[in-house]
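Q: Hi! First time asking for a complex rather than a single chain. Here are the components, and I think there are two in total. Is that enough to go on?
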Amino acid sequence: MANSLRDLAGIDRIIHEPARTLIMAILYAVESADFTYLLRETGLTKGNLSAHLARLEEAGYIKIEKGFRGKVPQTTCSLTKAGRAAFEGYRAQMKRAIDSML
Amino acid sequence: MESQIDRAMRRTSRYWYEDGLAEMAMGCIFAALGLVFFLQRALPPGPLQALCGMLGPLAAVVGVGLLGSRVLKVAKARITYPRTGYVAYRRMTASHRLQKAAMGGAIGALVATIAALPSLKVWVPAISGLIMGSVWVYLGHRLDLPRFYMLAAAAAVLGILVSLGGFDDLTAGALYFAGLGLAIVVSGAVTLGVYLRSTEPLAEEEGCGQ
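A: Yes, that's all I need. Here is the structure of the assembled complex.
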């Protein structure tokens, strides 16, 4: 129990927010995804999604690239190496904490 | 929490199949293989038929595969990405690619060995169907796509029926591949229909964000 509390205390607060966990999980499964996909999958509003993406970018966990798909503007997001490692660490930490509570 | 993360990742992994376009492209490859067998059967015995037998399957797989991937790219860019977004998948690692090639080679060697045994030759479509069915079951389970179980059943049943029909090699190959290709194309077309009815393209400014 003490170990699980220690694990939870040290959890990555940036990832440990439901919307951001979801964004990280989606991006972990792929090379990159665009804003439209993330909007649809997370069910967030545009403003909310933008704010969470900005927070993750600020932490160095994701890379946001703006470009064009034909003539349509496109914003694509991908995990950085640090983001991938942080998400793996977060999952392992959560698993340990949950396992030790059971 | 764990399962929610897994679900999100699984949903993203299966997004490639959401519109049915990939299945339609894959089905076209099988249907083309069936057509090659039909063509080979229709040709009079001779060098042309032998050439068709040697190069036809390769031409069908590579030619239709390349054409299919180009058409698929354009179709996804026009139909899928404006509606539900763009996702780029991670490239397979070298070891993963090697594993898949080794598995494909082993299955091919098994089918070729069975085909070389006169007493078992008639069962080649059934065995191919069961192997193909296993692949669909695996994909259906991994991606949580129930329609792939139906394709698995179609592949297995079709293979068994063709084997029981006692056709000659070329007719059996033609019926099996054409039938399987058709089943996959129909599954893809139905999926595409459902996808188109349930989604709408976003306005340009809606999707760009940030």
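A: The mean pLDDT of chain A is 90. Let me know if you'd like any chain examined more closely.
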